[in-house]
Amino acid sequence: MYTPYLICGYVATLSFVLIGFRVIHRTSPDLRGQKHLSRFLLSVIASLLLFSARGRLPLFLTAVVPNFLIFAGAVSVYLGATEILQVPPRFLSWQVNLCATALPPSLWFTYVHPSVLARLLIHTVVLGSISAFTAAMLFRQQAPAFRSSLRAAAWLLAFVVIVQALWAAAAILHPPSSDFLHIGIVDTAFSYVSLLLGVANVAALMWLSLCIHRGDLHRMAQTDALTGLLNRRAFEEILCRELPRADGNGHRLGMLLVDLDHFKRINDSLGHHAGDEALRRIADVLRQVTRVSDVMARYGGEEFVILLRDAGLQESAVIAERVRIEIAGLRGLPGDIRLTGSIGAAIGHGDESPSALLLRADEALYRAKRAGRNLVSIDREPFVIH
């Protein structure tokens, strides 16, 4: 097997993958992890090119540097995975120390006591260890929405570890030839499998990054940027799914429309920055007062809406009153302003449309406004809670 020809094939394969990464970068420049994964491909390509220059360049550049370029590429894969998942690179120092520890014996078995077997064992131990760190980090992630992508990337890295262990064992049983130009079929097979796993692994991590990016875009499309609550469109989608289940028996559904009283005066007197801060504080209040199962959204301007799962008339009235009290008691707002809110509550019925339920809650809200504000009004009932 003539090694330079084999290396040219490897370089061509990795170059095509790298070109694909550049295309992805142009279409999605904010995709996490792609720079680190591209560095892995560049490191391996540079390593292969240096290997192919054996006999024409100093031994240090063709025997020692290529291995450490591959190690650096493996560390880049780890950094890419941490960036994709947005977790701290806790194992980075371990990996750097491992590479630093491998340098003295690599030099020893290159110059003082030349040994292809020893250098191969160092290569498999270091590369396998770095891959094991990355695989362990991926296996520990708990993200049900991306479980399949995470597991695919983690298992590919685990296979890298297994292949390196098998390669080391095979090298001990059948020491590799010192003739670089004619390597054995076993080493050729292991190097080819390692290449395939490396390409597959970066592809799996890029797919994971794409899945997470798509999830981020979906959340952004459903989230109000100012308050972090759901936006109107997302809320109405949930309402359309939940309302048909409201039958008055086991699946009750309450709705609260909350409108801040005289909010326009805040923007006019203190500016929109103060108004934005007030809206963020109100969103925090709603999160604290409501239950985990409830759904909150900024419905528009200074108006918020809350969907109360498994809440009938009495439960909805209690929660609405709690919201009203917390809003009125909010302190530390810009300019020491004081806010109050008017709330309209309605109970959903499975045989009505979402727009009909919203209309009943809206009518209750405006009754609370007309009755003096800072009140709770329950869907067409002749009383208000104050």
Keywords:
single chain; 386 residues; alpha+beta; Alpha-Beta Plaits; 2 domains; 65% helix; disordered C terminus
Question: Your description of this structure?
Answer:
The radius of gyration is 31 Å and the shape is elongated. It has helices at 3-27, 34-52, 59-85, 92-112, 116-139, 147-173, 185-222, 232-242, 264-270, 272-289, 313-328, 354-370; strands spanning 253-260, 295-300, 303-309, 341-347, 376-378, 384-385. By secondary structure, it is α+β, with helices and mostly antiparallel strands. A 6-stranded mixed sheet has the order 2-3-1-4-5-6, with helices on both faces.
Measured between the Cα atoms of the first and last residue, the distance is 88 Å
Which residues sit in consecutive blocks of at least 5 with pLDDT less than 50? Answer: 381-386
Overall 3D shape: elongated
Helix fraction? Answer: 55-70%
What does the secondary structure layout of this molecule look like, with pairings?
Blueprint: H1 3-27, H2 34-52, H3 59-85, H4 92-112, H5 116-139, H6 147-173, H7 185-222, H8 232-242, E1 253-260, H9 264-270, H10 272-289, E2 295-300, E3 303-309, H11 313-328, E4 341-347, H12 354-370, E5 376-378, E6 384-385
Helix pairs in contact: 1-2, 2-3, 2-7, 3-4, 3-5, 3-7, 4-5, 5-6, 6-7, 9-10, 10-11
